Automatic annotation (TrEMBL):
The keyword Endoplasmic reticulum does not apply. It comes from Methanosarcina vacuolata Z-761. Signal peptide: none annotated. Transmembrane segments: none annotated. SUPFAM superfamilies: S-adenosyl-L-methionine-dependent methyltransferases. Residues 43-163 form the Methyltransferase domain. This is Ubiquinone/menaquinone biosynthesis methyltransferase. One of its GO terms (biological process) is methylation. Keywords: Methyltransferase, Transferase, Ubiquinone.
Amino acid sequence: MEEITIHEFDFALINEFFTELDRQGPGSPEETIRALGFIDNLSNKTKIADLGCGTGAQTMVLAQNTEATITALDLYAGSIEKLNVTAGKFGLQNRVKGIVGSMDNLPFQNDEFDLIWSEGAIANIGFEKGLNHWKRFLKKDGYIAVTYESWFTDERPAEIEKWWLDAVPEISTIGHNISIMQKTGYIPVAAFTLPETCWIDNYFIPQKARQEEFLKKHAGNKTVEDLIALMKREADLYSKYKQYYGYVFYIGKKM
Ligand code: SAM
């Protein structure tokens, strides 16, 4: 039987589920700070763009650990609304601004940013396409830091290979992704894998209560039942095959 893939679900429905959670993808404050440690010359003049920011978990970490001004962009208006409220609660509204927009048509000037950040989102445009398209918005010697789904091994069991090729057709190995970074005009600075806790404790476990709540809210809705079943399968596959894949932080410097 053909399996349903994530692409078959409505963008608004997926976001309605995820915006109630602190994060919309695997990650953690510790790993955001670790990646930030590779960026030179941060100051109160630094301008950061956070693309596919969701409700802004990593945006707040960036704001609290730098003096930079941050523009956070996401296609889903509900997430941006929440991000701007959170920035206000933290007293960061003067340095953090969430805007609705698409990462493949950015409303920015050439050479506007010192740093482009994107956690768990570049697959929406494609790794190579994103690196290429976003480069002109970075100053020379500016940095890019993205997390992206990556294979840890050259060979994988067919079940997990198929799952990821359906979700992210371009998924590749760390070595290949670093070569793409170099080919698209960045000097690779660092690459490190996100620990399992970023997936299990910060992504899958918080989903459980939300799944029950969401099923109740949409009782009898077959599409919602299918979406939740897909999310549960994603978690099961992770526990079965996590030695073969994960998110990798890729950090590069524009040449
Ligand atoms: N960075 C957040 C995090 O780690 O919690 C969110 C990651 S979530 C997996 C991916 C995000 O990309 C979602 O918030 C989604 O709305 C956003 N997105 C998808 N396509 C987009 C596009 N074309 N332009 C901007 N954002 C997009």
